[in-house]
Every structure is written in structure tokens, then in C-alpha cells.
Write a structure and sequence with these properties.
Number of strands: 9
Radius of gyration: 23 Å
Helix content: 40-55%
Amino acid sequence: MKKIRNKSVAGVFALIIMLICVLTLLKMVRGHLGINEFEGALVGRYRMINLNTAISKLLTGGTYMESNEVLLGKDGWLFYKATSDGTPLYDYMGINHFSEEELAKVYDNLVAIGDGVSARGMDVIFMTVPNKEQVYSEYMPDTVDKINDKSRLDELTEYIESKGGLIADRYGYVDTSEVLRACKDTYPLFYRTDTHWTECGSYLALMELRRAMDQRVTPIDEVVFTDKGGFVGDLAKISGSRDEYSDVNPVIDASSINDDSTKDQVMLIIGDSFGDAMIHSAKHFYKEVYWVRLKEYTDELDRYEPDVVVVECVERYLSDLQEEVAGGIIHP
């Protein structure tokens, strides 16, 4: 009797799996999706992820989350642990390192970009951003140990400083690590449920850029931020726990910004999603602000004719700077 019951349960389970697959295929046909998009289109995918996450947290007393991409930290902080989009966990542990040859390649690429932009008569400045794990390391779980305290971002910054800057400070370079760590207990600089920084974090970075370019700087304590609340970050979504988390969402009150010193200028940010997120802060200080991914650059310098060009890179994407940069940036 027990064998019959087990076979029945297995049969029902198999039928459910088959039904999910059939419904997913029908969904893909209607949406003209390719077979490589099967996982993302899977019917009930997030419900199953959410159930798996809830069960694992329940069984471990809320200390562990079963997820291939999200790491549950302390006090409800979520961190990205996958290796398909950078390796932030390895960066935090100090496992990732640059060789001297790789550092030289990154340096040469940055100089080449600087030469290409400045040849057009545009100001250019470079900015690096630490991963969330490096800024709020106190919320990382105790199960993750640091092997080496020096990160790849530390190595790159030290290398550039050892060279006297990018071509003896011809081009400005800003590592935002220090200012973010200094203000992390005063302002919410990163979302607890997302991989990105808040407007507080991007504002601090923007002020560091402006300071490096000898532009007027408005201290963050003179700016009013309104917490819109209810923010659900990318980590909460991909872990299937969006209903369990609600994040702060500080937004700049435009009426508190009285700086029009660069309101006649156009800024172009070339980088990753952190640069995209910085638009919300930069738009209060520049006439127009545009953004494009470094790998997707085409002709944005010619199209937008910016006065200021910011080349930005978050720590987990630093390896991308070893690759050949877009020829359109280097060659006018």
C-alpha cells in the first residue's frame, strides 16, 4: 500500500512538472521567445522561488536563504553572490586580484579613453565604486570569511596613485570608497534589498566628482532627502522574497538644491548601472544628463556633445576595463 501511495505522489508530481513545461512552452510561442529564454519564462517561477526561500528561512530560524544568487546577511540585508554578473562575493573575500600586466592594461585603457575624449575638447573624469559588500561589511554573514583585506579596487587605486595619477593627473580619478565608508552610518547609501546605491550614495559620489573638477560642491547635510519608502530591490525580487521586504528610498528634494553653477552644461556618463542610477542626482546640477554602457557605446559623444564626461565602473565589473574599449571613444 505504501509503494502504491508513493508511486501516486510521484505521478502527480511528474504531471505537475509536465503541465508547467507545457504552459511555459505555450507562453514562449505566444511571446515569440527563444529556447534560451525558457528559464526566465517558466510559469510559476517566482512562486516556486518564493516558496523555496520561505521554507529554507523557516527551517534555519531566518539565518539562511536558499538562493543561487542572493546571500542573506544580518538584520535583513541581502547581498549578491552569483558569479554570472561579476563576482562580488569573491571581491569581498579578497580572492580576486589583478596581475601587474592586468593593472597596466586597465591603466592604458583609461588613458586612451581620456585622450579620445579630451581630443574633442571635453572634460573627462574617471570614477570607481566599491561593491555594497565592501561598504556595509558588518552586515555580511559570519560564514563568509575575508581571505585578504586588499581588494582589486584597492589594487587599482594604489596602482594609479603610484603612477602619479592618470598621466600625472592629466585626467581626474576618484575612488568613492573612502567617502562612502565615512558616511555610511549617517545616510542610507545602499539599499538593503538591492545591489545599487541610493540617491544619498550617488549624491556623495557626484560631489566627489565635482570637487575633483573644481566645480561648486554642496555638502550633503545641506540637501533635503525625502524617504519615499516601499522600495523593493532587485535582490528581493530575484530571491522570490519581494513580499517580505520594504526598503528605504531617499529622494532629493529639488527645492533644497540652489546650485545653478553648471546648469548650462551637459554631462554624459559612460559606465554601468551605477552610472545610470547617478542620473537622478546629477540632473539637479546639469542642464542635461545622459548615460550609456561602456560596452554599448556607439556615437554618444558626437550625438550629445557633452561638456563633462564621467567614465564610471563599479568594483564587480573592473575586469571589463581590461578589454579593448570602444573605438569610437578613443578615435574622434
